[in-house]
Amino acid sequence: MRERITHNIKAHTFKRGAALITAALIATTLLFTACTDSSDASGGTPSTSADAGSFENADTFVKIIPPTTGTEGVTPDYTLPGSGKAFWKGVFIAGRKVKLSPYVLGKTEVTYELWHKVLTWAKSNGYTFANKGREGSAGGEGTEPTEARKKEPVTYVSWRDCIVWCNAYTEKEKGIEHCVYRKSKTDTAVLKDATNTSDCDAAYADMSKKGFRLPTEAEWEYAARWQGSDNTNAVRYGDVWLTKLDSASGAKKPIGFKELPSLPDGETWITLRDELTRVAVYGKWWNGTGWESEVTKTTVVKSKAPNALGLYDMSGNVLEWCFDRYDPEPALNDDAYKSEDIVTDPQGPAEGTRRVVRGGSWRLYAYNCTVGIRNSGDPEAKGDALGFRLAWRP
Length: 394
Known about the structure:
Elements: H1 20-26, E1 54-57, E2 61-65, E3 71-72, E4 97-99, E5 103-106, H2 112-123, E6 134-135, E7 154-155, H3 159-173, E8 181-182, H4 197-201, E9 204-205, H5 217-225, E10 234-237, E11 240-243, H6 269-279, E12 284-286, E13 291-293, E14 319-325, E15 338-339, E16 342-344, E17 355-358, E18 374-377, E19 386-387, E20 391-392
Parallel strand pairs: 4-16, 14-19
Antiparallel strand pairs: 1-2, 2-5, 3-4, 5-20, 6-7, 8-9, 10-11, 12-13, 14-17, 15-16, 17-18
Helix pairs in contact: 2-3
């Protein structure tokens, strides 16, 4: 079957009475980059040196303390899907050294239960949303959470909805003065209306605040790949070992994909599938001659094993919004964040409309779970395989 790489996510508008082919598209309502061919388990914690960074593991979140020396990019010397095109190589690329401040990341994708709780509060406190959110891929939209699906990730939320919801959650829990997303650097009005497209798309993230927010792309990838001093299925990036780009977050083996030149010693397509299935919820896997279905919907968070940091579903279940604007070249705007050749807390390009999306999903092929794949979406995009995860400053 011929491969087709689209490398984007688009919002779609549908009308009642449309043709059956249009109805079939409604189930997705987004077009994903590189989508081709049409047991709660606990992970071990590797020992780490101070230079390799550290983390503090709590019940619902992880505090991540990256190396103060930064993380040096490395060129992969192994085969990647898609013939190794740039968007499979992540943001820690050769010639780029990225330093991240300590940050906190939610252990799971935001569940519909939490989304709906904050949404209900927000509507009575001056907040407006473009979308009500849905219970996973097939649950109710904007309805009261059900026992069966309330722990599934929220879907059908746009990037604009997410940043406004983050402000609402912050105001509810910490006070409005801690909200991150403001109208601009000089106009510090808190963003409260996801239907105000111009204000949302020009949003300024005040990173001095400790409110809830979307992770930056570099924060997301570092958390998905961190292995400290554990070199299993990893490559050394300066003082830290990061999971190989051809693998899923938390996996000990590469993902099986058509371009894989040969199977690792002692492995079969099934053993590679089983390792991916241990850590990720995804749509189809490559059996050596064709694609076979794995799952047909989202599942509750924490249904798979966590990665080395204790984070769940970084490579599957639903795609995850990041704050950054997107450009095919991740280092495009580095001068704005650079000091002494180290890029500190980058947030992507200064201009552009599309926003970064990372991770794989239940709708996508196995290789979309690779920790290096970079994707993007229009800020109004929504779909049954698109959600988000919370970050904040400690």
